[in-house]
Amino acid sequence: MLQDNKYLQLTVGGIAFIIAIPLIAILFLSFYPEELMWEHYLSTVFPNYLLNTIIYTFGSCFVATVLGTTSAWIVSSTNIPGRNILNWVLLFPFAIPAYVVAFVYAEFFEYSGLIQTVYRWFFNYKSYTEYSFFNFRSMGGAIFVSSIVMYPYVFLMARPAFVQQAGYVLEITKTMGHSSLNSFFKVSLPIAMPSILVGSILVLMETMGDFGVVSLLGVYTLTFVIYDVWLEINDVEFAAQIALVMLVFVFLLIYLDKIYRNKQKIYLSTNSLVKPFRLIQLSKGQKIFSLVFCWGLFVVGFAIPALILLDYSIRFFDQAYTDKFNEYLFNSLNLAVIGVFFVMLFSIVLGYYDRCKKPFKINNFLISFCRIGYAVPGSVLAIGVVIPFSMFDNFVDEYMIKYFDISTGLLISGGSILLIYAYVVKFINIGVGAVESSLQRVSHTMDDVALLMGHKKFSIMSKIHFPLIKVGLISGSIIIFVDIIKELPATLLLRPFNYETLATFVYQYASDDLIEQASMGALIMVLLGMIPVSMLCYFTNTNSK
């Protein structure tokens, strides 16, 4: 519908260009390197930070992939008791921000925490000098936290692939004398591998951009370095140089993601009509192991952190519910509502444009380019956002002083509008994806028939399209809403002075080991996160049946 109007073509191109500005800004800054700074960092700390990033990212990805793939196969392929409930609760770790889980378990494993207290009581130790214990604030602790929070990405992608596999293939392997475990490694796993790799790449993207976990647990990665260089050294340009290094990895991951998503589509399209295979009958011992493994993931990834937060929120209510708490909650909700509005507004325009014939190739490129913002780490995105708009503010201020003797100050970069813009750039891909997937249910034949009957284009959109796509729009809006509530790095770097949200409030108290004061804010974020998780469970279960 949009292809006939050149003004709308220009509007779409303009929206895509504005959203792509942060990514363009980072690429532009790469042509002006600070050689002295690079020489200093390359000869001192940069190699260690890069190595930490690689170990943390790929270590978390490996463990999350094993956990997500194993749990997905057990739930989808075997007769484990409570399969339907496990399909739901195994997604619950999505509801808790990773940095919340990090500070909960850091407190849990501290000297005064429950684990070491029980350990000293059991072995009759009187002091910490009498024994050695695992230091949770380490690379191992960071990988543990990221793995138990991120495995649902792999679970979500792998489960439909296991469910929709051709049953006769596994039946053939059984008739040839192969065990269920052997069939899994030789048949099920290779067929589902494209879907599993899509989930693994999503984990890589999330962990590469993580700031909260690594900073709370003392693991210095490139994301932490960007934050440190920006705020401590006050060198935004050099921070952008480091951001470019991460952006190269992001582009590579996006390329791999596209390859494996195409393979995933081919697999699903060729097997979607095949009847699911019969459930594998587990022995008593296998059932016990499977139940312990799956329920253990839920307990460790969700139940323990959530119960600890609930306990602290009740016991330390007076400390957790401060005078400023309502203000922080309002700020979070306000940013989320406004952010969702603009994300979905632009997503509808771009999503409808993707549905139409697109003669402007530059628009196609800009739309694809701006959609990669979801994979860009929040601290990297903040660099790309603040630089161009700071330049714009300074230009306007100098112009007004020169010709009108009026100082305008920071029109954009000093307020919450910059945060809203960053959220649009970060989450536009989720919105456009929700619109596109919903519009796939709307046949172009419906549009043609309605046009022949004399209906106008916007009448078709309101009377035919919207009733069919509203569920997808609502689902996308809820997911974006909660993602904005939980978003930390960009919010921490771009928020106005003395402006706090639940995410920044929880992080700052957690970084000072004040878990009691942070508990209620963290618990509210968990409760808000459970809504889209339940919706994800419903839609994935429905689509995979």
Question: How do the helices and strands line up, and which of them pair or pack?
Answer:
Layout lengths: L5 H24 L5 H9 L2 H32 L5 H7 L8 H11 L5 H10 L15 H25 L3 H9 L4 H29 L3 H5 L5 H12 L2 H36 L12 H32 L1 H4 L4 H31 L5 H10 L7 H27 L12 H23 L4 H9 L4 H30 L2 H6 L7 H10 L3 H29 L2
Q: Give the class from helix and strand content and strand pairing.
A: mainly alpha
The chain-level mean pLDDT equals: 79
Please state the second-level CATH architecture.
Orthogonal Bundle
Q: What number of structural domains do the residues give?
A: 1
Report how far apart the termini are: 34 Å
The ordered H/E elements are HHHHHHHHHHHHHHHHHHHHHHH
Counted beta strands: 0
Query: Main sheet, how many strands, which sense, barrel?
Result: none
Radius of gyration: 25 Å
**The CATH fourth-level homologous superfamily:** MetI-like
**CATH topology group:** MetI-like fold
Unreliable runs, pLDDT <50, ≥5 residues? 269-276
Shape field = globular
CATH class: Mainly Alpha
Helix content: over 70%
Approximately what portion of the residues adopt beta-strand conformation?
under 5%
User: What's the number of helices?
Assistant: 23
Give an overview of the whole structure.
The chain is an all-alpha fold and 545 residues long. The protein is built from 23 helices and no strands. Helix 1 (6-29) crosses helix 16 (361-370), helix 3 crosses helix 13 and helix 20 runs antiparallel to helix 23. Mean pLDDT is 79; it is low at 269-276.
